[in-house]
Structures are given as structure tokens and as C-alpha cells.
Design brief:
about 40 residues; mainly alpha; 1 helix; about 0% strand; transmembrane helix; membrane; MmpB-like; transmembrane
């Protein structure tokens, strides 16, 4: 990597998609946990 190379910043759309996927993963993990607790009762 040269000092003159542009910074490796992802575009704004990609950052928004990554944040959305991260939120979806958290929601999915919580949903699976709740379903497992309900099935265990």
C-alpha cells in the first residue's frame, strides 16, 4: 500500500447495509433465544 493510495473507506451504502445486517443478526439471535425459552417451558 502506497502513501498516495486513497483510504480504504467503504462507501456509505455499504456501511448502512453492514449496520442493517448487524441489527438483523441481533434481532434474530434474540428471537431464537425467546423461542428456545418458550419451547423449554
Amino acid at each position: 500500500m502506497l502513501w498516495s493510495d486513497p483510504p480504504q473507506e467503504p462507501p456509505e451504502e455499504m456501511r448502512q447495509v453492514q449496520a442493517m445486517l448487524r441489527r438483523a443478526g441481533v434481532v434474530l439471535a434474540v428471537a431464537v433465544f425467546v423461542v428456545m425459552v418458550l419451547l423449554g417451558l
